[in-house]
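chain below, 212 aa
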Amino acid sequence: MDAIEISAASLTELQFFIGLAGTVAFSVSAVLSVVRDRADVTAAVLIGVITSIGGGTVRDVILDVPVFWAQDMSYIWTAIAASLVTFMAYPLMARRYLNMVFLFFDALATAMFAIVAVEKVWDLNFGLPVAPVLLGVLTAYGGGILRDTMLNRETVIMSRELNVLPVSLGCIAMVLVLEFAPEYRALGAVACILFVFGLRSAAIYWKLRLPE
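prediction:
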């Protein structure tokens, strides 16, 4: 029993830190995307916060559970801090590499948020086995969709870039781990995050696109 409790506590702690890391990554990528359009600090922080919590907020509303950031304000404070630091550090960044940095940060954030969402939906026994995949993808891209809509840009899911497919495959892989190898849940989560990030990174580096 003690081993199980320790394992559960460790899993919760891992999910928390992955969530915070994803919040930082989403905030950074969002601020980088608007500062190059000469947004001021207020707009940059607002976009950073909305992008980082938007997908998870929509997910929790669908699940009819308390919204994650309302229960733990550290997500909001982390998003604000990451947005402010990114805004202030922007002049120090090499501009020719800025777009690539933005894309990789965004890829990392989507991978983290998607897998953590799959685990949360699975634990709630909500619409298994399809809902964890669907809400994992929604969590990963919901904030980005809100960001692009506010900025009047083409949303990421409407582009031909290899975005949604890697995340969907990662979510499916995580569902398989939870179903058939739950004892390797923590390791599986890290592996799925790296899998999604690897595919997205390859797509970014080699400019892979889906056919029309």
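Residues 1-6 have pLDDT under 50 and may be disordered. The chain is about 75% helix and 0% strand.
thats it, cya
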